[in-house]
Design a protein that fits this description.
The structure is a single chain. It contains 13 helices and two strands; from the N terminus they run ααααβααααααααβα. By secondary structure, it is mainly alpha-helical. It has a domain of about 220 residues: Up-down Bundle (A middle domain of Talin 1). Strands 1-2 form a two-stranded antiparallel ribbon. Helix 1 crosses helix 7. The longest helix has 29 residues. The protein starts with a helix and ends with a helix.
């Protein structure tokens, strides 16, 4: 079974990328859409496999960082591409995508990881010091970039002025870079699992195998994002038929893009490596803000139209609730089914209110 997975993981990413190139920008019939959806699912599984190979080679928490950054960089590219092409709703695209990523990672992935670990061992154990530092970075970045534009007065709310946007971009990038330094160099021990992995003593993959997996990981993630974009027209039509707001399309695409990290987090939680799951979730949230805001600020130089970053009242309430619950979950360094259920409830509330605002 494992050999079959390895072979599929080697073949699927380049094949999916070739199909992506062939169907990009074209109207495709339903049978081809079925193939695209199957390749999308296969690319997600392949990305998780290659991320684990790379992580085993480089060690944690650097392995979790690679997957988080790879997904975010490709996501940023997709956002900028959609904003350049224009269309209705693009002025809020960056805000909606980043906020969806924060809510899904900090509540959906965190809650699911805690749930899986608590069902297996009754108590999910993790490093409170490192996880708390990551959560503090998420809260600060989200407040500076997504909450403050709603309350500043120099520009019509919810927008930043040019200097304010530049400050938010520099602050986000600087805080993200410092987090990476602390997580992987100065205080690496605070982000390591408190339990030993089941396969910790297995032989690390050879450098050539790890390099191959790194390349295929990028190819798989490009395929995931690209195929999700190809299916966006079908998703938009489905959302419209269901009577849902157009902004819900961004939530659906964000869910698809975050699937590799979700599966990787769940697989680590099943091995009682909750810290790695939390590194993936919170690291993705930090990367989503810390890399997206500076990129959008730079792109706004040549992008036409307004850039709306400020959240609405309902979104700010959900973000505040996420911050408060996250602090209470992280402080003890231990979590049960109750904490998992609370986070999943907040994620469900976000999804429901995104569909019915």
């Amino acid at each position: 079974m494992r050999t079959s997975l390895n072979r599929s993981a080697l073949v699927l990413p380049p094949f999916a990328l070739a199909v992506l190139v062939a169907v990009w920008g074209r109207d495709i019939p339903i049978p081809v859409e079925v193939v695209v959806v199957a390749l999308l699912a296969g690319s997600v599984l392949a990305a998780v496999h290659h991320a684990e190979v790379v992580a085993h080679r480089v060690g944690e928490p650097f392995g979790a960082l690679i997957l988080a950054v790879a997904v975010t960089v490709i996501e940023v590219g997709l956002i900028i591409t959609l904003m350049v092409t224009g269309g209705s709703g693009t002025e809020t695209l960056a805000r909606d995508t980043v906020f969806a990523a924060v809510m899904i990672t900090c509540n959906g992935i965190v809650g699911l990881s805690l749930l899986v670990a608590a069902l297996r061992t009754r108590i999910a154990v993790f490093n409170a010091e490192g996880t708390g530092a990551a959560l503090a970075a998420v809260i600060t970045l989200a407040t500076l970039s997504l909450v403050l534009p709603t309350f500043t007065t120099s520009a019509p709310a919810p927008q930043f002025t040019g200097p304010q946007l530049a400050f938010a971009a520099v602050a986000s990038l600087a805080l993200y870079a410092l987090f990476v330094l602390v997580q992987n160099v100065r205080h690496r021990e605070s982000f390591l699992p408190v339990n030993d992995a089941e396969d910790e003593h297995a032989a690390a993959p050879a450098p050539r195998q790890a390099l191959t997996s790194l390349v295929l990981l990028v190819v798989a993630l490009v395929s995931v994002v690209g195929l999700a974009k190809v299916e966006s027209g079908t998703i938009e039509a489905g959302v419209a038929r269901a009577g849902l707001p157009q902004s819900f399309v961004g939530v659906v695409i964000a869910v698809l893009i975050l699937l590799p990290e979700t599966l990787a987090a769940v697989r680590n939680a099943r091995r009682d490596l909750v810290q790695i799951s939390l590194n993936l979730a919170l690291g993705s949230a930090i990367a989503s803000i810390g890399l997206t805001i500076p990129s959008i600020a730079l792109a706004s130089i040549w992008l036409s139209g307004p850039l709306v970053l400020g959240l609405g009242a309902t979104q700010i309430v959900l973000l505040t609730l996420t911050a408060g619950v996250g602090i209470l979950t992280v402080m003890p360094g231990r979590a049960t089914l109750l904490q998992a259920a609370v986070h999943l409830s907040i994620c469900a509330a976000f999804l429901f209110l995104a569909a019915s605002p």
